[in-house]
Design brief:
Elements (H helix, E strand, L loop, with lengths): L2 H31 L4 H24 L6 H28 L4 H24 L1 H7 L1 E2 L2 E2 L5 H18 L9 H14 L5 E2 L1 E2 L2 H4 L6 E2 L6 H10 L5 H26 L4 H13 L1 H7 L5 H19 L9 H17 L3 H6 L1 H10 L3 H29 L14 H17 L8 H34 L2 H23 L6 H4 L3 H18 L4 H25 L5 H9 L2 E3 L2 E2 H9 L4 E4 L2 H8 L3 E3 L12 H10 L2 E7 L13 H7 L7 E6 L3 E6 L4
Parallel strand pairs: 4-9, 8-9, 8-10
Antiparallel strand pairs: 1-2, 3-5, 6-7, 10-12, 11-12
Helix pairs in contact: 1-2, 3-4, 3-6, 4-6, 6-10, 6-11, 7-9, 7-26, 9-10, 10-11, 10-13, 11-22, 12-23, 13-14, 14-17, 16-17, 16-20, 19-22, 19-23, 20-22, 24-26
Length: 673
């Protein structure tokens, strides 16, 4: 450890002890001699202690000589984050069943570590930078900055999850959990929720899962083997991937030669995004997929981004290829990233960066081999390399443009679920438009100086090419398949775009900024509005959970002494197959195999009487469940007129109606001809 860091650590600890004694002394004195109430005495003691801590740490610990008020504001902010981290850890441990006193003891070093790192990297950073200069070289403390933002991210999501610590689940989540559960019983890569045409074509339950890649369920299965439930394993995996992405973002930022302030900005915008926070607590593969992409880019850029690099290390290129290949096994969209390596290699050759061509092609070949394994599996099982989404559609250019606009809007401003925040959303939109216009004007006036660093900064070209490849392929897929063209699919590119924006802002500040205070004010206004909007959406908006809606409907009574759930379980038995028009959530709630009745947007089967009868006979379906539309929007439009007739109670002779309620109708096959 650098001697300056060691010295500040010792002084910081000394100040902490003195501050604690002073705080306790003030509290006890006010209570004993002034008769102050507990709350007033406690607040007064902490205010005095905080002021004392600021003065001593500023003048003695870090020897900070810059302006007082900005340093005080940053110090108070760091204190708030550290105290919040302490509370979150304590409450989480108590909620997990730990002893109260032990939980408080564990929370104290967390508070101290976050407080010190925050002072070092944020509150008194300039003095720290000067203190870290030793013999002309700056000692690297790269772990401090991402660790600070990891603490903030963890605190934010923990406040949302308290006290239940239940992850967010959706339709894709149910598929992943089903495949992970089957893995525990020796059935690798199989799902009991037969939702898509490809899985249903196998004719068996559980069926081979090809619509989703196997990487994420396999990771869940490995974690479940430690004793965690599927939901707990998914929460741990998503949260760890999100925290790890912060370290990778900081690493790539250093590869781009971004300043500490710029890297702070990138990490802050990533952490503040409601999408980052939601996906960090979701049973979805996006967080792990994003981590894999960032890991691959960090490995590859370490080899090809530096124009002074000599002989490339083949091992690093192979490692990057492995990470790119893993991204495909987590989400098929990894294909879009892998294809982006080819134009990167072409650009490297065209710009005479010959040393970058070889590692890029090695990474591409390694990733392609790993990807080919998944494609071969899909071909052997389903006869197509795509695995799922094989239905061909032709969406118009207008539909694609509209979907793209909606996705970008939701990614920047969050889903418009809260009308009371429309004003803030509008102000942020206007601020972004104003910054965009100013950037266009600046580019027109100073394009020569702005393009000069781009021509000499191949790392930025690599990132921009990967983003362009991903968006182009995703747009093509949305034009010809039934996949959802939503913000969730664009999220993996968000951290890369933030890096490029930070790099562009750095160039603008160096070359064309004539009013730094005004420019900083604009940045703070936009960033503050962005954070306020997304954090408000994250905390104040209820997250949709289809299984909760289904569970509520299944608790409705179909007779005087029986609920819908009880009737279905009685008919299905311990392993009977159920058919339902909200199939995935139904299977998750009932823990039974389910055949889904899906609409024509994702499936090619028209659910008329003949197809329903044949499918029930083929899979030996014991119970047919038809949910009626309701205010919770859990039921999408009926997949066919026949299913709509069943919801109204109009059934053929071979279906016997067991019971009905205001939310659900239950049938059992009387005799299937």
């Amino acid at each position: 450890m650098n001697s300056w860091v060691l010295g500040t650590s010792v002084r910081f600890a000394t100040v902490g002890v003195l501050n604690t004694l002073l705080t306790i002394g003030v509290i006890f004195s006010l209570k004993a001699f002034a008769g102050a109430p507990d709350v007033a005495a406690n607040v007064s003691g902490y205010v005095v202690g905080l002021v004392c801590s600021f003065i001593l740490n500023k003048r003695w610990t870090f020897q900070h000589e810059d302006r007082l008020l900005p340093a005080l504001a940053r110090f108070v902010t760091v204190f708030g984050v550290a105290y919040l981290s302490n509370i979150v850890v304590v409450l989480a441990l108590i909620g997990a069943g730990f002893n109260d006193y032990l939980a408080h003891l564990v929370g104290m070093p967390v508070y101290t570590a976050v407080f010190y790192l925050g002072c070092l990297q944020f509150a008194f950073r300039r003095s720290a930078d000067r203190g870290l200069e030793t013999r002309g070289k700056t000692v690297r403390t790269h772990i401090a900055l991402p660790l600070l933002w990891c603490a903030i991210l963890f605190a934010l999501v923990a406040l949302k999850l308290q006290p239940s610590w239940e992850p967010v689940r959706s339709n894709d989540s149910y598929q992943y959990l089903s495949a992970a559960e089957n893995l525990q019983h020796g059935m690798v890569g199989k799902t009991s929720l037969v939702h898509y045409d490809e899985e249903r074509s196998s004719g068996v339950v559980p069926s081979p899962m090809t619509t989703f890649p196997l990487g994420y369920p396999l990771l869940l299965g490995v974690l479940e083997a430690t004793g965690l439930s599927g939901e707990q394993a998914a929460l741990v995996l998503s949260l760890l991937a999100s925290l790890g992405s912060l370290f990778l973002l900081d690493l790539i930022g250093r590869q781009l030669s971004l300043s500490t302030t710029a890297r702070h900005w990138v990490l802050a915008m990533f952490v503040a995004s409601s999408w980052t926070l939601v996906l960090a607590i979701s049973v979805l593969s996006e967080a792990v997929f994003t981590f894999a992409i960032l890991c691959a880019l960090a490995l590859l850029m370490g080899e090809i981004a530096d124009p002074r690099a000599k002989a490339p290390r083949t091992g690093m290129a192979i490692a990057a290829g492995l990470a790119f290949g893993l991204s495909y096994w987590l989400r098929y969209a990894g294909l879009f990233v892998i294809l982006g390596l080819l134009p990167v290699a072409v650009l490297a050759w065209a710009t005479q960066r010959r040393s970058a061509v070889r590692p890029t092609l090695i990474a591409f070949c390694v990733a392609s081999l790993i990807m080919a394994g998944g494609m071969v599996r899909n071909i052997l099982l389903m006869g197509t390399w795509r695995g799922g989404n094989t239905k061909t559609v032709d969406n118009s250019a207008l539909d694609i443009a509209h979907g793209f606009g909606i996705a970008i809007r939701d990614l920047l401003f969050g889903p418009p679920r809260m009308s009371e925040w429309l004003l803030l959303r509008g102000l942020l939109f206007l601020a972004i438009v104003a910054v965009g216009i100013a950037a266009a004007v600046a580019f027109k006036k100073y394009h020569g100086r702005l393009l000069a660093p781009l021509r000499n900064h191949f790392a930025a070209v690599v990132l921009a090419t990967i983003v362009a490849s991903y968006l182009t392929c995703l747009t093509y897929a949305a034009a010809h398949t039934g996949i959802s063209y939503g913000a969730r699919y664009f999220f993996p590119m968000l951290p890369i775009v933030l890096l490029l924006l930070a790099l562009a802002i750095s160039w603008i500040e160096i070359d064309v900024s004539t009013s730094p205070r005004r420019w900083r004010g604009v940045q703070v206004a936009v960033a503050g509005s962005y954070a306020a909007l997304h954090l408000s959406l994250f905390y104040l908006t209820p997250l949709p959970t289809a299984h909760e809606h289904v569970a509520k409907r299944l608790e409705t009574r179909i007779s005087g002494d029986s609920t819908a759930r009880q009737s279905i379980l009685s008919l299905a038995g311990p392993s009977g197959v159920v058919m339902a028009n909200v199939g995935q959530a139904t299977g998750y709630v009932l823990r039974r195999p389910v055949i889904s009745l899906i609409g024509t947007r994702l499936g090619s089967v028209e659910w008329n009487e003949v197809n329903v009868r044949n499918t029930m006979k083929r899979f030996a379906v014991s119970t047919l469940v038809v949910y009626k539309p309701g205010p919770d929007l859990a039921v999408v439009p009926y997949p066919s007129l026949f299913i709509e007739r069943l919801a109204a109670g109009d059934a053929p002779e071979w279906l016997h109606r067991v019971g009905t309620s205001e939310a659900v109708v239950i049938y059992r096959p009387a005799a299937i001809p």
